[in-house]
Specification:
heterodimer, A: 105 residues, mainly beta, 11 strands, globular, B: 115 residues, four-stranded antiparallel β-sheet, 0% helix
Chain lengths: 105, 115
């Protein structure tokens, strides 16, 4: 079973806009992680947020965690065409279904 | 270079045959994992191993087998019992099991096609 559910399934934006992806989960967590996958490739780790953290930043990425709602969001600011990829959340060794982001130049 | 290597990149299997996908890591990680990804979908956990000589079934273990005789290696065998094996297979490793405190490192995947 996939414990993380993500929305939206697909997101299309223009370069320079912000992209927000959401992930919900069902069980308690130690941490939640976000990964990126370019088409047909392996996954690359983006950011890890621990259960006692509420927000974390890394460059143009901002991740929030709301343990009361069992949800997390990934915000990519000032998007670029190179951000086009699928994004997945991970916790308890299970991945969400992912959000396919397309950034149009 | 430290990393995790999967081979081959592409693999073709005839129906009824067993095939083995290789996964090797030189990161000195204790834990290793296998995931399956179908087109346009997320990753599903097949098997994982938190330590040498031990492994557990994930969510879709039927038709698959693994071994963990060495810390560096976690091969996955897709048996003839797996009815729909065509998929993209990803191997991962982490310092400790369950990704509890650390990130996962992924190989570049093996694309298996049944012909």
């Amino acid at each position: 079973s996939q414990q993380g559910e993500e929305d939206p399934q697909a997101l299309s934006i223009q370069e320079g806009e912000n992209a927000t992806m959401n992930c919900s989960y069902k069980t308690s967590i130690n941490n939640l992680q976000w990964y990126r996958q370019n088409s047909g490739r392996g996954l690359v780790h983006l950011i890890l947020i621990r259960s006692n953290e509420r927000e974390k930043h890394s460059g143009r990425l901002r991740v929030t965690l709301d343990t009361s709602k069992k949800s997390s969001s990934l915000l990519i600011t000032a998007s670029r065409a190179a951000d086009t990829a699928s994004y997945f959340c991970l916790h308890d060794m299970r991945f969400g279904a992912g959000t396919r982001l397309t950034v149009k130049p | 270079d430290g990393g995790i290597t999967q081979s081959p990149k592409y693999l073709f299997r005839k129906e009824g045959q067993n095939v083995t996908l290789s996964c090797e890591q030189n990161l000195n990680h204790d834990a290793m994992y296998w995931y399956r990804q179908d087109p346009g979908q997320g990753l599903r956990l097949i098997y994982y191993s938190q330590i040498v000589n031990d492994f557990q079934k994930g969510d879709i273990a039927e038709g698959y087998s693994v071994s963990r005789e060495k810390k560096e290696s976690f091969p996955l065998t897709v048996t003839s019992a797996q009815k729909n094996p065509t998929a993209f297979y990803l191997c991962a490793s982490s310092i400790t099991g369950g990704f509890i405190y650390t990130e996962a490192f992924f190989g570049q995947g093996t694309r298996l096609t049944v012909v």
